[in-house]
Every structure is written in structure tokens, then in C-alpha cells.
Amino acid sequence: MTVDELKELIRQEVQKVAKNPTDAQKEAGNYRKGHISVNGYDITIENPKGSYRKWKDCNGKTGKQKMHSDYGYFNRTVGKDGDAIDVFVGNSYNSKRIFVIDQKINGKFDESKVMFCFKDKDSAVEGYLRNYSDDWKGFWKVTEVSEKLFREWLYDGFKQRKPFHQYIKIKKNQLIEESIKRCLKEIINER
Q: I need a surface site. Which of 9, 100, 130, 176 has the fewest CB within 10 A?
């Protein structure tokens, strides 16, 4: 799919999203949403750029936030909170870079959010923060990840129980250990 085709698909799909679903519809998830495919990932858009995302925190406080990116979730995934893994879709449609942001609330890991279609780490962090209020303190860490490791993480609901940056560090260490073992085995076999 070309950049122009993706841009047009997103434009068409976000127009389908119900702008003011009731709380009952949001809870049940049975209101109109947009559906797109970005870099081979099926994403449902529930809050288009320019819409308002309503929220309720763990203390019962409610509010709303204007969205500066299209916001939704990856289909057939399960995040730490039991819901699908959330994704912000930026405007750099030709970017294949993937960033995962870990959130902390009250000093504890909350969940990870994915940033697609952002050109670099700085624009991913800026895009994330623009979708929250100025007093938002949930940003913790951002990690750029390869498509291969991202796909492995995304579709395994167990791996989302820990912050992404910890998972990726463990995974990289495992890959290094496997590489060292292979090299040692080759050296031993050559003798």
C-alpha cells in the first residue's frame, strides 16, 4: 500500500467512527469504529484525530482530552489491563519505525502504548504527550523496537505483564547469550 493509499484509507475509516458513543456502548465496545491495516497490523480506530477521548481514572475522576493522533488498538491482542494493546497513529505514513511507551501510574507500571507512523523517537514522545493533559505524569520510558521483536511481543498476552523496556532488555540478553553459545559450539567443533 502506498503512502497516499494509506492516508486515504485512514481518512475514510475515521469518518465511520461514532463521535459520541454512550458510556454503555463504550463499555460493551459496540459502537462504530474505523478499521485500518498499517504495515500488516490490523488496527481499530476508536478516537480519530480531532475527537475527544473521555476517560475515568482509578479514583473515579472523569475528564476528556482532545486527540492529536488517531487512537485505537491492535485487534486480537491483550495488554496488561486486559484490554487490547493501544496504538497512536501519527502522520508520518511512510515510517516503518515502531516505538513502545511504558506508562507508570502512582509509581507502578500501568501499561504500554504503541506509536506507529512517527518519524523518530522525539516525534513519538511528543505525539504521545500531546494526547494527554499538560499535568500528565504517566510517561515513563520509550523504546524503539524491530518489527520482528515487536510482532513476537504484541501477540503474546503474557509478555505485556512487564514494562516493554524490561522485556526488550531481557530478550536482547537472551539473543546475546544464544549467539555466544553458538560461537563457542562452533569453536569447540572446529578443534
A: 176
C-alpha 167/C-alpha 108 separation (Å) is: 16
Q: Average pLDDT of the chain?
A: 88
Q: Do 124 and 118 touch, CB atoms closer than 8 A?
A: yes
Q: Which of 168, 135, 131, 141 is nearest to 152 (CA)?
A: 168
With beta carbons less than 8 A apart as the criterion, state whether 98 and 145 touch.
Answer: yes
pLDDT by residue (tens digit) across 83-138? 899 999 999 999 999 999 999 998 999 999 999 999 999 999 999 999 998 889 99
Strand order across the 139-145 sheet: 34-38, 41-47, 70-74, 86-89, 108-116, 98-105, 139-145
Q: Residue 86's beta-bridge partner residues?
A: 73, 113
Q: What is the pTM of this model?
A: 0.86
| pLDDT at 180 (0 to 100) | 66
Classify 29 as helix, strand or coil: coil
Among candidate residues 103, 172, 106, the one with its CA nearest the CA of residue 142: 103
Q: In one letter, which amino acid is 43?
A: I
**CA-CA distance, 8 to 109, in Å (whole number)?**
36
Give the Cα separation of 24 and 102 in Å (integer): 28
Q: Which amino acid is at 178?
A: E
